[in-house]
Amino acid sequence: MALLPDESIIIVQNLQRDILERLHAVTATEFAIQELFGEISEMLDYFEQLQNAKERLYTYYRRFYITLQQIYEAQPIASRDMLGLLDRYIDEGEATISGIGATVEEIRRDVNLP
């Protein structure tokens, strides 16, 4: 069975936690906009941006889950390609989480949410 160093597992688990926190921020923002403004045409672009952000977050959460599962099921060891894929997903996930955080903050500023 292929095993990863504890440091790699901690990095992925922290990223998954960050994804969930961003997901909460996205859905809280969607809810606040819906409550304050409803689905007026001026808000549709924001709803679309937030929906896109959720989909990107879901994608990376699933990628981490599936990739870790495949690495741990690999026998006798995980392929170099699989480990490289995990590294790439970590880098992309960090960038995605950061970008979505900035998007949510910008939307909240635009519509005067705290």
Describe this structure in words.
Helix 1 (6-37) packs parallel to helix 3 (80-110). Helix content is 82%, strand content 0%. It has 3 helices and no strands. The chain is mainly alpha-helical and 114 residues long.
Produce the secondary structure layout.
Blueprint: H1 6-37, H2 44-73, H3 80-110
What key attributes describe this structure?
114 residues, mainly alpha
Instruction: State the helix count.
Output: 3
Mean pLDDT: 95
Question: How much of the sequence is in beta strands?
Answer: under 5%
The helix content, as a percent range, equals: over 70%
Give the SSE order as H and E letters.
Answer: HHH
Write a brief structural summary.
This protein has helices spanning 6-37, 44-73, 80-110. The chain is an all-alpha fold and 114 residues long.
